[in-house]
């Protein structure tokens, strides 16, 4: 409005001002078009939707945000004929919502967290406090069918045929309890309101999370028929079991090292095991062979721009540490013996302990400094650089022999190679190889440890008698003068 008035007054002004105002108007219209597009994104555009939820309040919020984005983008890449909806709680940061909408093309539906009435239950895991937000999928009544997803699904192919399934369809990974990492539903306000009512009245829920609730809400799914999408594309009515190929448990893969579900599709992999074994962590591969597939997926879609600053800072720091230790060679034992202490043996033990702790720290600290969601190849490289840099500090500060201190480093590299080796026929052979390697490494580790301790001993003894190596031994009575 204000701009148009200005434009009117500008028409009598100079040419430069006119151009400037035209430019301003142009900016305004493109911004308006842009906003229109965003608004239209908030409206449903397809009959069906893939949906996932996002909430805040766990230490892993950022990881799940990244995982969600990668999943959305891989769905887009597979050319799904459906909206992609993120059911986000109100406290999800606005810049995340914008990235999801503007960069990834998702439709974000903001919801209030559902109160979890099972929090006082004995086996309740705090991690699952807000998973009941999943029930909001039934409130997405703009759609005929919704495929509700957890963020730890890895899609191998398009699964749009799932929209032909009925009112509720899920996969039994466990023989008796269906899994809620992927399920099909028909949104319905009546079902949604009934579910909210059941939450209020405290329906039985074995784990206090979404899975326990849904298993209790749909108790007869095991007796339902298996889903086969009708060839004419029509939608089914009723509840169905979905073939295992829609939720292939990654742990089965580790047994065979390939997918071998001959009946049904091999479409979606899920990672329901230990929470620190999710595929988006940098250490996921080669420990878990599938981690690499997930990271390749991310590399081709979202990329790693967010983590790169941290990687650069850490690399520069580690390279600096290596350079400085090579040039300066500070020696802690020397510093400690400047003054002839009486309690020599106690100091010796102390220094030995500190040296061992330093070496341990050199292998542990870099592990926690690497950004958790980094690409697995970059992650391991940064970790190995970091542990090498910090170990070389220990080598130089305590005048230790290089090889024994670096032995764990070499063994870790070896472990990675043994794990990553592509020629195993199955997971058991692979596990046995890793075990055999560890078995052979143990004596090497022990020998290195003994060597470090004995060389510490020698260097400490030497320092005790000649406090300043390279200088003439101090005259008698020198220490007393201090
Ligand atoms: C369910 O969705 C409608 C829009 O379809 C919305 O107005 C309503 O607030 C939602 N219900 C809850 C409990 O969020
Ligand atoms: C599609 O096929 C199913 C059987 O698979 C049949 O029951 C249904 O009537 C068919 N629908 C149409 C529109 O042809």
TrEMBL record:
InterPro entries linked: Alpha_mannosyltransferase (IPR022751), GNT1/Glycosyltrans_8 (IPR050587), Nucleotide-diphossugar_trans (IPR029044)
UniProt xrefs under Gene3D superfamilies: Spore Coat Polysaccharide Biosynthesis Protein SpsA, Chain A (3.90.550.10)
UniProt cross-references to CDD domains, sorted A to Z: GT8_Glycogenin (cd02537)
Transmembrane portions of the chain: 308-328, 349-368, 407-425, 431-449
Species of the source: Dipteronia dyeriana
Sequence similarity: Belongs to the MNN1/MNT family.
GO molecular function, one term: glycosyltransferase activity
Keywords on record: Glycosyltransferase, Manganese, Membrane, Signal, Transferase, Transmembrane, Transmembrane helix
One Pfam family cited in the UniProt record for this chain: Mannosyl_trans3
Signal peptide: 1-32
Name the UniProt record assigns to this protein: Glucuronosyltransferase PGSIP8
């Amino acid at each position: 409005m204000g701009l148009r008035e200005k434009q009117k007054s500008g028409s009598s002004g100079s040419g430069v001002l006119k151009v400037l105002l035209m430019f301003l108007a142009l900016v305004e219209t493109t911004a308006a078009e842009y906003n229109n597009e965003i608004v239209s994104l908030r409206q449903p555009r397809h009959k069906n939707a893939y949906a996932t939820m996002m909430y805040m309040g766990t230490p892993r919020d950022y990881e799940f945000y990244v995982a969600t984005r990668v999943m959305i983008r891989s769905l887009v890449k597979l050319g799904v004929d459906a909206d992609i909806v993120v059911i986000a709680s109100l406290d999800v940061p606005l810049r995340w919502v914008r990235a999801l909408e503007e960069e990834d093309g998702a439709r974000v539906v903001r919801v209030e967290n559902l109160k979890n009435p099972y929090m006082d239950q004995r086996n309740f895991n705090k991690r699952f406090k807000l998973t009941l937000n999943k029930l909001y999928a039934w409130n997405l009544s703009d759609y005929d069918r919704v495929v509700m997803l957890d963020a730890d699904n890895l899609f191998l192919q398009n699964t749009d045929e799932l929209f032909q399934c009925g009112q509720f369809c899920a996969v039994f990974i466990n023989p008796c309890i269906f899994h809620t990492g992927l399920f099909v539903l028909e949104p319905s306000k009546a079902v949604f309101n009934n579910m909210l009512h059941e939450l209020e009245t405290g329906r039985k829920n074995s784990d206090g999370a979404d899975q326990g609730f849904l298993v209790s809400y749909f108790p007869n799914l095991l007796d339902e028929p298996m889903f086969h999408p009708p060839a004419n594309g029509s939608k089914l009515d009723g509840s169905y079991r979905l073939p295992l190929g829609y939720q292939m448990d990654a742990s089965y893969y580790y047994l065979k090292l390939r997918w071998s579900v001959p009946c049904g599709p091999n479409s979606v992999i899920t990672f329901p095991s230990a929470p620190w074994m999710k595929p988006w962590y940098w250490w996921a591969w080669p420990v878990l062979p599938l981690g690499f597939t997930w990271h390749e997926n991310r590399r081709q879609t979202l990329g790693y721009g967010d983590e790169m600053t941290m990687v650069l800072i850490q690399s520069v720091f580690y390279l600096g540490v290596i350079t400085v230790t090579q040039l300066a060679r500070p020696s802690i034992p020397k510093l400690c013996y400047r003054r002839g202490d009486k309690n020599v043996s106690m100091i010796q033990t102390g220094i030995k302990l500190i040296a061992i702790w330093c070496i341990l720290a050199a292998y542990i600290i870099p592990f926690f400094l690497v950004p958790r969601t980094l690409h697995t190849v970059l992650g391991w490289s940064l970790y190995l650089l970091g542990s090498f840099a910090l170990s070389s500090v220990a080598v130089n500060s305590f005048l230790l022999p290089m090889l024994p201190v670096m032995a764990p480093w070499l063994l870790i590299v070896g472990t990675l190679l043994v794990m990553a080796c592509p020629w195993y026929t199955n997971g058991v052979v692979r596990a046995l190889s890793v075990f055999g390697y560890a078995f052979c490494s143990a004596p090497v580790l022990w020998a290195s440890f003994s060597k470090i301790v004995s060389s510490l001993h020698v260097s400490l003894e030497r320092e005790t008698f000649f406090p300043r190596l390279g200088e003439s031994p101090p005259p008698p009575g020198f220490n007393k003068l201090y």
